[in-house]
Amino acid sequence: MHEMDCREVIKHMAQYLDRELSTKEQEEVQKHLGECGSCANAFRWENSMLILVKNCAGEELPKGLTARIFDSFDCCE
Helix, strand, coil: what percent of the chain each, to 5? Predict the structure, then answer.
């Protein structure tokens, strides 16, 4: 079995979190994360950001926020 190095694991992190890797690739990432504290920390951070974004996705935006954002683009032309 090919062992992934840190560069490969970081490159595939988003796909791993989204469960888009093959079973073999998932196993390789999991093995590396179990052996590399640095990559395991990066994984925990990425995963916590993903959870945060998912949790915020259900929040209702303050009234008028979208219009204010689009209006701010118009002032920059």
Answer: 70, 0, 30
